[in-house]
Write a structure and sequence with these properties.
The protein is an alpha+beta fold. 42% of the residues lie in helices and 14% in strands. It has two domains: 12-102, Orthogonal Bundle (Arc Repressor Mutant, subunit A); 110-140. It has helices spanning 39-50, 58-65, 74-89, 110-127, 132-140; strands spanning 17-20, 26-29, 32-34, 56-57, 93-96, 99-102. It is globular, with a radius of gyration of 18 Å.
């Protein structure tokens, strides 16, 4: 599926999404990958996902997409990226006054799930010995996260 299909806007709240920002930025819609396009569009989705369910100002989005001073066309470019994302996300991407808000349901964002599992593991480790099964489950929950050692 690509951003140009435009066939999911109205029913988007009832369909499932997977937002993956740990590792390569990926979006799935009803278990099908969505081609996000440019690096700037993926950066915008990531910036919105990191502040899910809260308005993210155009200034903050511009800072996320452009190193240094954003171009004069930054606002127009952000609106263009938002329009393309909205074709897939529908009412999940909400325009606010000089901001956008990405609505994400519990369990849809890998970073939030990772934090939830890590917090649960820390709490379990503090109150009882960590089981091997729990440690393996936690470590394998996010295969996209790759730890590398300097080489």
């Amino acid at each position: 599926m690509d951003l140009g299909s435009g066939d999911h806007g109205e029913d988007s709240a009832r369909m499932s999404y997977e937002f993956r920002i740990l590792g390569p930025v990926e979006l799935s819609h009803d278990h099908r990958p969505v081609q996000l396009g440019s690096a700037k569009r993926r950066a915008m989705l990531t910036a919105l996902a990191l502040d899910a369910n809260r308005p993210v100002s155009l200034t903050r989005l511009a800072d996320a997409l452009w190193a240094g001073t954003p171009p004069a066309s930054a606002t127009a470019n952000l609106r263009s990226h938002a329009a393309a994302l909205r074709r897939v996300l529908g009412d999940r991407l909400v325009a606010r006054v000089r901001a956008y808000e990405l609505r994400i349901e519990p369990g849809e964002l890998d970073a939030a799930e990772f934090a939830r599992l890590a917090t649960g593991q820390r709490a379990a480790a503090g109150s009882a010995p960590r089981s091997r099964c729990g440690a393996v489950r936690w470590a394998t929950a996010f295969p996209a996260v790759r730890l590398s050692t300097p080489g």
